[in-house]
Amino acid sequence: MAVTTTTEETRRLIAAPETRQRRLRWGNVGWSVARWIALGLGLVITLVPTLWLVTTSFKHEVDYLAYPPRLIPNSWTLDGYRVLFERNELGHFFMNSVVVTLSSTALSVLIGSMAAYGLSRAKLPFKLNGILAFWMLLTRMYPAIVTAIPYFLIMRELQWLDTRRALVFTYTAFNLPFVVWLMIGFFEELPPELERAAMVDGCNAWQRFWKIVLPLSAPALVATAILSAVLAWNEFLFAVMLTRIEAKTLPVVMSGFITDKGMLWDQMTALGVITVLPVLVFALAVQRYLVRGLTLGAVKE
Amino acid sequence: MASVLFDHVTKRYGKVEAVRDLTLEIADGQFMTLVGPSGCGKSTTLNMLAGLEEVTEGEIYIDGQPVSGLLPGERDIAMVFQSYALYPHMSVRDNLAFALKVRGMPKNVIAERVQRAAKMLGIEELLDRKPRQLSGGQRQRVALGRALVREPRIFLLDEPLSNLDAKLRVQMRAELKLLFDRLETTVVYVTHDQAEAMTMSDRVAIFDRGVLQQVGTPLELYNQPVNIFVAGFLGSPPMNFLDAQVSDTARGAALVGDGFSVPLTQPHAHLSRGQRVTIGIRPEDIEIVPGGDGIQTTISLVEPMGSATILHAPVGGKLVAIETEKTTPLRTGDSVTLIFPADRIHVFDPATGVALRGDQQRAAA
Predict the structure, then answer these.
(1) Superfamily of domain B240-364
(2) Complex-level ipTM beyond the 0.90 threshold
(3) CB contact under 8 A, B99 and A215
(4) A193/B52 Cβ within 8 A
């Protein structure tokens, strides 16, 4: 009797983990199916509009005006691109976007990192450091349209309307708070002893910033520069307010295909693809720095 | 080469006093160690001398000149940091040369000084590496080298050995001592390690809670501590402390405590009858005798250290550490008889912790 009980118990003990394992395995399958569905949905939501943009740029009029709409056209064409390049000074507008983006990014990273260094190191009375930093952030808390009219008036007075420098100036002002906040966060993570060592070595604040702090901040600078470049490249509101013909950037040109005779979908989407491509290539090229820069300071070495 | 004087220096952070009314003189060419537990004010003192922290009250003089208005870079001091603080983006060579470049020294002088320092520290073959390619001990040497090339008036070292493993630490301790003996430059050395303080220094200043407790040669501090804190801080294992009272016994006046009695002799003969005191005795000063007169107790713990053996045994209600030779046959549970030699006893006021010595009291009076 005792023997049978023991055998039974033993058998149950041996069997139990097996069933548990099987149940777990089924659970795992359920979970992974759910995960794939969630991931798939996410991909559809993010990628289908882009896909639509790309396919539309290769469609004939019949296809892009078809109802119900067709994602994949019956026949492919490069007409949209051909007309786009023939009828527009695309090179000029492309250069506008490039020059405005690069200059405003360079300026905002330069000025912003210096401001951030000052705010993170200076010992101002009345907690002024925090107040100033917060004040800067405040400028990003209201919609950009709020300042659009003042900016328009300022630029008109300066006779800067429809110039690249108007956009460079505006984008720099708009990206500064963002650069300052990212860089303050980074500078505060730098080990203070490095700068103390530099002080003993005879460096003033200016030398400490340029010779010690900035070289060590390269990953953060790159990440910050990428993000502000993307913001400037894609900006539409101020570009459309402050430019008319000469200084138009790509997003403004794109909006120009909404005409009184209708939407020129093929040309608009073709330009959309052309606008997205450089950013995409750039992002792929620097993604290593981007991830590193954004997670800097999260884990101690 | 320079002398340093802290003249009634106080440092406050808001309402917290990090250093209180510090007066301390460091002679030219001296190796002075500031030692104490963490938060005792020793690092703040060093940082004030470096110019990295401002003095709240009082003044610091280097070679008789007040230095409060001078930036760290203008004080002609070099500092070695606990974390080494090597510039990660520069090669070892550039790390060494950096301070000289900032000062605009001619290139050939810089190269020569870097070479000399590298040779002195045996890091010549590391000059082209980056700090992250170095081991802890090598980084430590580079940090030292960065101070050496400066040829400063004063070297400041802030716990330079505490990031090294135990074996390397002892080795570097000896190397540092040799190095600074050769350089004959003033050194101010901060550590929490009493062994470093004892072995390396010409003089030691012991801090506790922002207050300087005692300054002297290592042996002065070890043999004549002015209070319980100093007595307990120096020495490993630390001094034993027991409560006692001055009483008359059949053999004359004695310090009588729970389970022991020690004859009252010089320099404590001035103590009055009935006075309550705390006595201190170092583990190595306790004698173990074969039997007869003494403190009867039983060994409760044996700790073989290799070079010596530490026994723990209760006296009264307290466990007392006794240092004995490594070959001792004694084991846990063995009965022993202990003697506290009267001339080895330190006597302290139990309320204030101050040492009660006839000669000092006379000197004070």
Answers:
(1) Nucleic acid-binding proteins (2.40.50.140)
(2) no
(3) no
(4) no
